[in-house]
């Protein structure tokens, strides 16, 4: 992606800046926080993803000539505001949960300390990235947990916007997927890419046997042959006849996957292809993967469900002003009182309370004060930006490692797929101490 | 968006091309079609969107030095295939439903006539765009139908990937939304942009009264004041006191919208602000909009539900090889026999059968032959690309106009929000004639 990210912004952020500039409130020191009021229905934990992408997008958040010309022509804001936008550089501080961290209701995922105008203008871009990437990572983590040691391949590019696809591949990788079919994700984020074989390739040939022979000749016996275009058992027979026992994999993409996996495994073994793997790919989600745990399957290819957050395509995060300097010159917690959308004012700090054996016990949130570490706890907020400069890693492998660590700390009930409460309670310091 | 779109592609498309090039099958004349096997659960019609974006993305579908270097380094395909990709230019023909058209199960939304290799490599990009944009437009059309003459504003940018947001704004506009909050959609696609006011802006001030006064001073009395930060009726009182009866709008973003709309309307009228409009924005979807039909509401701001397809974030379209030249040199229909995923082979043609009064009656699909126009029918496939050159409009306003026309032709049952069958049946020519 080239170019400015500055117009990936809602119209009203700029008009609010105009009004605040005019009244002299634009430079008031403020704290904005991103958090989720709740987890998606019945989920036991969420996974933060997108943080690295936010930090990179902020570097390109510049109102250049093209952006300003558009705003001027459409009369979105006045000349003074255009001048302010032209000079815009985020110069504040940002703390946040490390990318890949698990989260719970109220966890302060991002804490932005800046002037009002510098912070408010980031709302849309920050939430777009966080809501999308975290929705995918949260679903993907349930899938990799259900898959255990069997690798998951992300194959959902065709089921989501072409750029979401790249971000989804990255988020799924962070949550433990082993590879993606998306080539741009390989190039842009260094995610391993993988592919199998297509029905159209088989149908292109006069006979399935020709398709298999040609694929093996070009791609070698380690390739994956797609065996469900016509008749599965006939295809497996031909596949092993042509490839020999060194055939890499066969792919099943339809029908009763549990029953077929057993049949195909038995057939492959009978034919001597004991090392040939079985890849399954038909409309899998975390529940289908769990149902295949006892079946002889080696890899899961997951599409629609992972890129669309398995029923929850947006993570429900909001970005709220929680504190600002008042006319008396001191910082004051603020919160709207709106029915059904009330929030908690004040700058948050967060700690994961752990038992001496390292198992997570509670999410401790301090308001305007740092919770005390009991000795086995883990600080959750890390500094991401210091006076406008990015000071944290933005790469996917670091986040993937962090996720594996953070998920392993959770009590075992966290990994149940059935509906339940959050795996650990969120406790505000006042209640805890 | 700058740069190449060529790597927005699944790994296996390229390995299939390698195998087809090696065996001499890559140049076989082929027909690929994009269609949906079914509508999302209970929907009565779908809306095709993304066609214009596909045509533009195809222009940038080039394997340049950067793309080739990545593929070489990762050893995705062999040298011969890299050479073929370097020269890639789509040189075939494409027909499709005009953007904004309504569709039904089996409607041939895109018909690609090219060699195997030229057509197969477009699968991922075509489906990403079509599945995303059509999911949004299909949901958005139900919302604008429920809203009637009241304008809908698309405000969901923060609930979806930052680039999906731009495409979603475009798709919603095609389906009848009047404007979007997304500035980049304004710049890139010419969609009108709109904004209201933010809670953070009110909270920035020591008092709500100061916030309103400053906003009015900077943005004028025609602005929209957000009245639910603390107490709605107190806020409305202050708003009219400060702005006078010429206050543009007030916005409600929480609580019981139906009840509040009635109360606020009565209060505004009592205060003499009879021309002040009421904008509502809290978690609206088509059902919430329908429930507000009798309430005194002037505008709907819709977020999460429109950009995530109101429960169906991917339209379920597939891209299948349906016909190819065999070794005998003639075109032959092909289809996989896979359990639960069978498709219909052969090149499709499509006609919307209409009664003499213009009301749509059936989707007539001809296989390898053009259905006969009964005199009142409408041809559905228009030529989009002729020998590699785009020959159809790609802009959103044309598609918006087409959608309004196509939806108006549907029988009235099509616009019911309750679960039901497709509004008109899909009939294959064999059965019809």
UniProtKB/TrEMBL annotation, chains A, B:
Pathway: Cofactor biosynthesis; NAD(+) biosynthesis; nicotinate D-ribonucleotide from nicotinate: step 1/1. The keyword Hydrolase does not apply. InterPro entries: Aldolase_TIM, NAPRTase_N, Nic_PRibTrfase-Fam, Nic_PRibTrfase_pncB, Nicotinate_pribotase-like_C. Residues 7-131 form the Nicotinate phosphoribosyltransferase N-terminal domain. Transiently phosphorylated on a His residue during the reaction cycle. Phosphorylation strongly increases the affinity for substrates and increases the rate of nicotinate D-ribonucleotide production. Dephosphorylation regenerates the low-affinity form of the enzyme, leading to product release. One of its GO terms (biological process) is NAD+ biosynthetic process via the salvage pathway. Its EC number is 6.3.4.21. Belongs to the NAPRTase family. Catalyzes the first step in the biosynthesis of NAD from nicotinic acid, the ATP-dependent synthesis of beta-nicotinate D-ribonucleotide from nicotinate and 5-phospho-D-ribose 1-phosphate. PANTHER family: NICOTINATE PHOSPHORIBOSYLTRANSFERASE, NICOTINATE PHOSPHORIBOSYLTRANSFERASE PNCB1. NCBIfam families: NAPRTase_put (TIGR01513), PRK09243.1-5 (NF006698), PRK12484.1 (NF009131). This is Nicotinate phosphoribosyltransferase. It comes from Ornithinimicrobium avium.
